[in-house]
Structures are given as structure tokens and as C-alpha cells.
């Protein structure tokens, strides 16, 4: 006697429903970075019609160049946040690396030896941060807050708290890298694109990226699976500091001079860009695209305040509002998922 097929169980039904409902399009619009990108695009379109200056080639060049600096540091910050940490020292590391670059070039050395030393100084800061956090288990907030003061103090000591604006024989090369353009695209934007692709590849396709997400999602489980958690944490903070180091070198070339207030409070804009772009402050989630579009939205807000004649004092209020809105959106989405 033929036995009728058994009824599909609950798991089979759930999988079938997911295959029908979770299309690529719905998955795309489920990402916070998509909505932030649309918000930035809509803001740009509105400003283009509301003002005569936003859509000019010079202003768009300035907007893209300016957000590239925040975006570069936000790449490293996003990786740190994914791992479940925070790095408050990035603004000071930008200053320290720029100052090392300036001092070495001012002493008569070329661009490349100076860049190696500047990046080495940045990496050393990240190494100390990571070691204290991973091995001594000091909270990342405390360690990087302390390093925020230490790194800037070192920049003051090295420069005797003076501005450096003469960069020796390779000065033109430095100015070209930081302030020049190729095919109308600012060099910092090109650097952001290249490093963004590299970071996205590492996070998505490398074992290191898998381990970073695993640590942020559940550090205890990551330890039990055999992941070398302390070394991955150290590498995360070194990576963050290196992104800040690259930014410091480029900013030195763009500004044409380095002072000890360079990068001051930059960490706030960087954290905002990462969070607005979808990075979860509890760890385990975040994207490179989110960090970049978050930085773009912040710069568009800043630029719009200037063009519309609104006091720039309101910039912090707008950025703070978007941070709270982004986190609230993420929490509501998590609660909704938990209900189902």
C-alpha cells in the first residue's frame, strides 16, 4: 500500500517562505547603508535645486574630498566596532602621523622614508591599544580615551607645539597626493575607494574578516572555536590606527601645514559615520559601504548648513540627531526580528 507523503514540517515551511520573501531586492533595502545612501542622494538633489552653488564642480570636488578624510578613518573604526570595541584615539593618531611626516620631511628626508615612519608611529599606537585591551582586558573606551591624550601630547612634544609648513625636497609630491586630483577626482577620494575595496575584501573573503565578525558577535564562542582572539583584537586596532595614519599624511598634503590641533574631535564624526552607516555598537555587524555613505551624509549636512546660511554651530545637533535615529532604527529592527 502506497504511503502518502508526510506533511512538511515547520522548518521546511520557514525555508520555503524565506526563499520567496528574502529576494536580493528586499535584502538590499533591509540594509541601513541603503537608506543612508538614499538619504544622502536625496539631500544632494534638494540642495542642488535649493542653491546655485551646491551642484557646481568646485563645491562637489570639495565635498567629496572632505568626506574622504572622515571615510578613510571610518573604515578602521567600522572594523573596530564590528569586533565589539571602540577607538577614541583616531583623531590624535591623525595628528601624530601628520606631525611625524612633517618633521621628517622638514629635516630634509624624502616623502617615502617619512611616510614609513609616520605609519609606523600610527601602527605602534594601535599595537599598544590592542595589547592593553586584549591582554590586560582593559575596556577599549578607557584605553583609547587615554591614548587620545597621549598621542596628541606626543605630537606636541615632537613639534614643540609649533606649526610645520616646510616639507623639504619632496614637498610638491606631498601636496600633490593630499591636494591634487586625477581626472577631476581628488586623490583622497581615490585612496578611499582603493582602501575601501581592500577592506571590504578582507572583511568578506578573508579568514581574518570572519574572525573579526565572530569576535564581535560572541567573543566567548569565538574562543571556544579556537580563534586567537587576542591577536585578532590587536590587529583590529593596528588596522584602525593605520587608516588614521594614512589620513594624517594626506591631510598634511592637503592643508600645506601641520598643527597640533589637526584631527581634534574627528573621532566623533568618524564614529557617527560608522554608526549612521549601520555598524552596531554592540559588535558583530557593519559594512564598508555604510561607513563611506555615513561619512558622505555628514559632509553633505555640514556643507548644506554653510550654503543655506545656517550657523555651523547646528552641525553637532544634526549629526547627533542622525546618530540617535540610526541606533534607534537598528534597535527597532532587532526587536522586530526577535518577535518573529
Short description:
The chain is mainly α. 74% of the residues lie in helices and 1% in strands.
Explain what you see.
With 340 residues, this protein is an all-alpha fold. The two termini are 41 Å apart. The mean pLDDT is 88. It has helices spanning 10-21, 24-30, 32-50, 57-82, 90-106, 111-134, 140-159, 171-179, 187-205, 207-217, 219-224, 229-255, 266-276, 288-307, 315-339; strands spanning 181-182, 185-186.
Shape: globular
Classify the secondary structure makeup into a structural class.
mainly alpha
Radius of gyration: 22 Å
The helix count comes to: 15
Q: What fraction strand?
A: under 5%
Number of strands: 2
How far apart are the first and last residues' alpha carbons, in Å? 41 Å
Main beta-sheet strand count, sense and barrel state: 2 strands, antiparallel
Order of helices and strands: HHHHHHHHEEHHHHHHH
Strand order of the largest sheet: 1-2
Low-confidence stretches: none
What would the average pLDDT be, to the nearest integer? 88
Fraction of residues in helix: over 70%
Amino acid at each position: 500500500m502506497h504511503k502518502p507523503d508526510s506533511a512538511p514540517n515547520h522548518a521546511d515551511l520557514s525555508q520555503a517562505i524565506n526563499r520567496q520573501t528574502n529576494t536580493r531586492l528586499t535584502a538590499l533595502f533591509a540594509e541601513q547603508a541603503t537608506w543612508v545612501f538614499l538619504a544622502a542622494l536625496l539631500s544632494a538633489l534638494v540642495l542642488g535645486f535649493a542653491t546655485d552653488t551646491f551642484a557646481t564642480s568646485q563645491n562637489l570636488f570639495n565635498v567629496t574630498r572632505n568626506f574622504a578624510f572622515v571615510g578613510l578613518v571610518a573604515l578602521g573604526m567600522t572594523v573596530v566596532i564590528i569586533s565589539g570595541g571602540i577607538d577614541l584615539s583616531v583623531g590624535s593618531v591623525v595628528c601624530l602621523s601628520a606631525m611625524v611626516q612633517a618633521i621628517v620631511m622638514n629635516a630634509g628626508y624624502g616623502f617615502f622614508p617619512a611616510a614609513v615612519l609616520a605609519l609606523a608611529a600610527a601602527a605602534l599606537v594601535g599595537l599598544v591599544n590592542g595589547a592593553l585591551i586584549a591582554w590586560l582586558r582593559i575596556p577599549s573606551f578607557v584605553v583609547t580615551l587615554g591614548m587620545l591624550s597621549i598621542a596628541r601630547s606626543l605630537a606636541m612634544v615632537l613639534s614643540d607645539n609649533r606649526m610645520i609648513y616646510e616639507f623639504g625636497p619632496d614637498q610638491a609630491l606631498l601636496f600633490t597626493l593630499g591636494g591634487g586630483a586625477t581626472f577631476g577626482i581628488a586623490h583622497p577620494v581615490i585612496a578611499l575607494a582603493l582602501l575601501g575595496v581592500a577592506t571590504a575584501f578582507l572583511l568578506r573573503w578573508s579568514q581574518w574578516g570572519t574572525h573579526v565578525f565572530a569576535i564581535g558577535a560572541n567573543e566567548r564562542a569565538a574562543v571556544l572555536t579556537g580563534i586567537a582572539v587576542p591577536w585578532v583584537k590587536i590587529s583590529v586596532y593596528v588596522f584602525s590606527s593605520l587608516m588614521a595614519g594614512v589620513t594624517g599624511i594626506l591631510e598634511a598634503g592637503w592643508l600645506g601645514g601641520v598643527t597640533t590641533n589637526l584631527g581634534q574631535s574627528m573621532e566623533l564624526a568618524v564614529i557617527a559615520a560608522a554608526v549612521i552607516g549601520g555598524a552596531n555598537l554592540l559588535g558583530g555587524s557593519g559594512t564598508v559601504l555604510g561607513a563611506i555613505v555615513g561619512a558622505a551624509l555628514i559632509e553633505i549636512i555640514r556643507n548644506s548648513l554653510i550654503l543655506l546660511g545656517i550657523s555651523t554651530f547646528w552641525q553637532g545637533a544634526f549629526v547627533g540627531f542622525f546618530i540617535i535615529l540610526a541606533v534607534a532604527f537598528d534597535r527597532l529592527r532587532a526587536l522586530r526580528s526577535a518577535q518573529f
